[in-house]
Specification:
It is a single chain. This protein has 413 residues and is an alpha+beta fold. The chain has 2 domains: 204 residues, Sulfite Oxidase, Chain A, domain 2, CATH 3.90.420.10; 154 residues, Immunoglobulin-like. It has 8 helices and 21 strands. A hairpin with a 2-residue loop joins strand 9 and strand 10. Helix 1 packs across helix 2. It starts with a helix and ends with a strand. The relative contact order is 0.15. The structure holds the ligand Nc1nc2c(c(=O)[nH]1)N[C@H]1C(S)=C(S)[C@@H](COP(=O)(O)O)O[C@H]1N2 and molybdenum atom. The site of the ligand Nc1nc2c(c(=O)[nH]1)N[C@H]1C(S)=C(S)[C@@H](COP(=O)(O)O)O[C@H]1N2 has 19 residues, from loops. Ligand MTE binds next to loops.
Length: 413
């Protein structure tokens, strides 16, 4: 069908239901004028919700203290060493590296060498940052860097390595150490179309700021924030196959994947009868992808108890699909001169994202609720993943990532 056919058909339809259509168009236009704007696709670096440990926080250092901490591009150094750990019976032999990179020997990796690697191996992609223990996404960035496997290759032959452990600047105080790790396999192998672990030095096209973990930060695309160590300075290859992440100590699942989940924005708690109610939020596409986001609106008695996420009422709903924000005009969104074709997660010919929202990324959703009679209401939203599991399934344990079904209450007056 060509364009003139389409417009002739809509013209005829408009003629039949002209008055109703005109009224509906007016309502839509009025709603569009009052609808809250979607969240930006790229969160400005300073607007991410910050989750940083340390006293003082490393990003507050300036001048000589910042240089002494090796947190400027010129002073930055990364040590890569082998952990001598052995323990029978599970770890009979220690990891080795042919060429460790150390400060003591003057061989630690510096900024020019990292940039040199970047010229050959640089990758870019969008990823949402989300804390395993926080109910709201922290932000979404366009991250640029070099895969960890390319950096490790600088160390020559490795033996007896089962995990790669790493940490950032921690005020030279072991109590402040915050460390994380990935398995040898996760570091070296990437499934087709998937995203490698990498050392990021740009965010949204700009040098990575001290606030966001600059000059260099680890990014583990599929995971929650605790794997994406800021102010990266040490990597240790080890034959200790256990996961010794700092986050493991907090009873967290220390190998969690980002969870597919919808997160509901706050909104006004009183709305005038006759006004539309805008349900808005963001949906993260985790390991299992996003099929849709849906909402369930119900009347409640003022002050009544919240339903549990596994309450039988939730099975019935009715759950109604929300609208997902459309993919943006990438050329307009990306930094000047960037092409979506060059981003991982996009088709290298058409420049279209391979899924929407992007895997390990997020986008906004909305639903407009109209003609509500005065009274108390609650509305909840949930994601449904590509395997048809509705949130919080298939992985309801919250210590593997917060994905409880979020509820908003309001009153129509
Ligand atoms: N060095 C260091 N890296 C860190 C942290 C930290 O405290 N110190 N916090 C981690 C956690 S738990 C999260 S959720 C993310 C948050 O990233 P952001 O502050 O850029 O939003 O950073 C991670 N990287
Ligand atoms: Mo976190």
């Amino acid at each position: 069908m060509n364009e003139s056919n389409v417009s002739r058909r809509s013209f005829i339809r408009l003629g039949v239901i002209g008055a109703t259509a005109a009224r509906a168009a007016q309502t839509l236009a009025a709603d569009a004028a009052t609808a809250p704007a979607p969240h930006p696709i790229l969160t400005p670096a300073k607007d991410f919700t910050d989750v940083s440990r340390g006293k003082p926080k490393p990003f507050t250092l300036t001048g000589a203290a910042q240089i002494e901490a090796r947190l400027t591009a010129e002073s930055w150094r990364l040590e890569i060493t082998a952990d001598p750990f052995t323990e029978k019976p599970h770890t009979p032999a220690a990891a080795t590296l042919e060429k460790p990179l150390t400060l003591a020997a003057g061989t630690a990796l510096d900024w020019p060498t990292l940039m040199e690697l970047g010229r050959k191996h640089e990758v870019h992609f969008l990823k949402a940052m989300q804390c395993l223990n926080i109910q709201t996404p922290l932000g979404q960035g366009l991250w640029t860097g070099v895969p960890l496997r390319e950096v490790l290759k600088l160390c020559g032959k490795m033996t007896n390595v089962r995990r790669i452990s790493y940490s950032g600047f921690h005020n030279n105080d072991p109590q402040q150490l915050f460390k994380s790790s990935v398995s040898y396999t996760q570091c070296l192998e990437t499934a087709p179309g998937d995203l490698p672990i990498f050392l990021a030095y740009r965010l949204n096209g700009e040098p990575l700021s001290p606030l966001r973990g600059g000059p260099v930060r680890m990014i583990v695309p599929w995971s929650h924030g605790y794997k994406s160590i800021k102010w990266l300075q040490q990597i240790s290859v080890t034959n200790d196959a256990r996961n010794n992440d700092t986050y493991a100590e907090g009873n967290n699942d220390p190998d969690s994947y980002l969870k597919t989940a919808a997160y509901v924005d706050e909104g006004p708690d009183k709305i005038n009868a006759g006004d539309p109610v805008f349900l808005t939020g963001q949906v993260i596409s985790g390991l299992s992808g996003v099929k849709r986001v849906e909402y369930w609106l119900r009347r409640v008695d003022a002050g009544s108890a919240k339903l549990a996420d596994d309450a039988p009422e939730l099975l019935h709903g009715p759950w109604i699909p929300c609208q997902l924000e459309a993919p943006p005009n990438w050329t307009r969104l990306l930094p000047a001169g960037w092409k979506p074709q060059n981003l991982l997660g996009f088709d290298s010919v058409t420049g279209k994202p391979q899924s929407w929202p992007l895997r390990y990324g997020m986008c906004s959703f909305t639903a407009i609720l109209r003609d509500l009679k005065p009274g108390h209401y609650e509305v909840r939203a949930r994601s449904v993943d590509q395997n048809d599991f509705a949130q919080p399934e298939p992985r309801p344990a919250q210590k593997a990532g917060k994905n409880a079904i979020q509820v908003r209450r309001f009153q129509v007056v």
